[in-house]
Amino acid sequence: MRTVLLVFLLVHCCLCLNAQQQKKPAFTLHGTAALSFGVFSQENYSGNQPGFFWSLNGNPVLGVFGHPAPVSLMISSQQRSVSTPFSQFGVSPTIKWAKFHAGVRSLHFSPFSVAGHTFLGGAVEINPGAFRFAVLGGRFQKAREADTTSVFRLRPQYRRMGYGFKIGVGKTRSYFDLIFFKAKDDSTSLGAVPTIYRNLTPDENAVLGIATRLALGKKVYVQVDGGASLYTRDIRSALRSETNDDPDFNRFASALSGIIPIRNTTSLTFAGEAALRYQSRQFQLALAYRRVEPEYASMGAWFFQTDIQQFTLTPGFKFKKGRVRIQLNAGVQNDNLLKLKPATSQRFISGVNLSLNPTDRFGIDMQANNFQFTQENRYLESDSLRLQQSTLFMNVAPHWSIQKGDNAHSIHGSLTYQVSDDYNPYTRQNLNSNFAFAQITWNRQQSKKGQNTGIGLNARINKNGTAADDQSIGLLANAGKSLLKNKLRVQLNANYNLIFSKSNPPGNSYGGGLGVSFKTTKSTRIYSNGYFLSNQTAQRKYKYLSISGGFEYTF
What we know:
By secondary structure, the chain is mainly β.
């Protein structure tokens, strides 16, 4: 909280100084606020929706001497394992080349250091000219005790505090940033931890990162991001210098001790990516390389796909003033970077996206992707354990539209096909699959009358080895109308599907929804929505009903 108060005081001082130079209203306020609620009823439904919920959302924007300060606020009931309401509050005012943050916020310094992790605290970003600087600090994780009485058990966690900064030079096209971030769990923030969570430990992390982009002319630029992470899995473990007799290593550990104490559970891992990009009006090309070592982690980011190395190539073309667009992509990926696992996996991905729009009324989009996966185990010689699989995905989506006065007609089609092949003769019978889905819809919009209608057909074929062999055909429809001089809006939709299975009698699935919105005044709106779904097949029978509504105010 001290960090939050410090930022608020700093913002206040800057605003007062700036107010003397500008003749603008001292304070302005606009935004939206909404109160919503909902009830749910279910029968044999796999979801775990609460029977009732409510939420209060607000997005006010406070203007102070002409400077906007957006604020987000949310309070809601949680009727699962969380008994107290969840609330968030944050503000981010901007003053010329400075931006201040206080409350619940998230920032992005680079992909491998501070990358969008939510924290409660304060931050300042300043960019006067070519100088770039940012600093943040606060709580990155709230302490949570173990709850062994609830059905939905939330894993306990220690309180985590962290801080970081970014300093660099440059602007959007070319810049160089040096980043440092450090966070640590408070081992005293939890009571006794149950034995089922014996792998829960208080951790510590320090990350040094770089983020750079260099423009080579107007069409070419190079971008490089990297990170080195010192991560201690248990701050209660012994120092490495106390258990290691290697003087060279102890000197290295001593040099790093000013950043983070080197313990028996401390690891040093690296991650990085580099990209070369070219872009013109008719052609673009990107060549990228990414490498993330096993167990790389930063407490300033949510998670990473680790133990991965990949190369990607993505050329693109434009013709006929953008009416013809072609996007190609190809990539190679593998794991087991440090040769610590018995098996190494390789993946090859290729694809093409084609968009054709010969006229303003008609167009067609096509997409095809191929994914191949192989895995070799250097310790196992059995052919039955070798993996070699491929998946082909294709989609064709034509669209047509025409405008005649107040009537706008549109037809959209979609055909999707996916096939997965397993080349291992011992397992291909169970893993081969074929899936196809087709849909066509027609919609009519009459803007002056405030009404819309639509109807559609769909069909599906699914064959998944010996696990599934079924088909379905369905009908969907929608209609909407504005009444009372557009103050009242009513929208209805419905769908019905017949389901056929090779080994079971036919079944069906149907559902529908109704939405009503009434604008009582220029700034207030009352709305209500209802949805019903029923599935009656030999494999599964369930029903689901939800009704929600609320009040929205714009100021």
